[in-house]
Fold:
Amino acid sequence: MDQSLHPGASPHLPSFITAPGQTDVLMVVMAVILVLAILGFGTVFFRLHTLPERMAHKGKKLQFEIVAVLGLLALFTHIHLFWVAGLLLALIDIPDFGGSLSRIAGSTEKLAGFGPGQGAVELPEEADHGHGHHEPHAPPPAPTPKPAPAPARKELTHA
Structure:
């Protein structure tokens, strides 16, 4: 190898310089380190990205689905505000109003004399509330006239 060196080169070569036709060990080691670093960075990134979703799932929060959707929006749109909003929603404990309202409805039904679940009012089919095409409704019936009040008697006074 000494014969192929340039006359101005140092006689001592570093260990990472390989002879022609040999395997470059430094390049192979650096390629393995690069692949492992990319995989490690991706794993850390996705673990951090799913942090709000995991927090909401672990806490059995009601807003878990909203947090998951916000996380996906942040991932695909690169708008970090969605991730921050999902993290805040995962940290906040929204109270369950459904349980209280159902107990109030059950107590009201009990006071009204209905059985459990029988106080639900069903709307007639014609009550469409502005969705779709309507046929004109018949005019409401005319109010029945009140009987004329009897003529008031004049009170007799002493004056």
User: Anything to note?
Assistant: The chain is about 45% helix and 0% strand. The two ends are 149 Å apart (CA to CA). The chain has a mean pLDDT of 80. Residues 25-49 form the longest helix (25 residues).
